[in-house]
Amino acid sequence: MTGASRPVPMVEWADDEWDKFVDLNLSAVFRASKAAARQMIAQGEGGAIVHRSA
Question: What is the largest distance, in Å, between two alpha-carbon atoms of the chain?
Fold first, then answer.
């Protein structure tokens, strides 16, 4: 997955821009991880989800 950034001062961000940024960079990772975890549980073999950022 690839996130997004906006290299401008925080005071220039509109609230709706912030909401979209959080949804893309945090919520999307949560939802994808949740789907992967459900699949791992269904397969009965367990597994691991590793998140990393640069």
Answer: 48
**Alpha carbon distance 54, 48 (integer Å):** 20
DSSP for 6-33, written as a single string: --S-GGG--HHHHHHHHIIIIIHHHHHH
pTM of the model: 0.66
Residue 42 DSSP SS3: helix
Q: 35 is written with which tokens? A: 């789907």
Tell me the C-alpha distance between 52 and 1, whole Å: 10
Q: How far apart are CA 54 and CA 45, in angstroms?
A: 30
Q: For 14-34, give one letter per residue: b (16+ CB within 10 A) or e.
A: eeeeeeeeeeeeeeeeeeeee
Mean pLDDT, all residues of the chain: 87
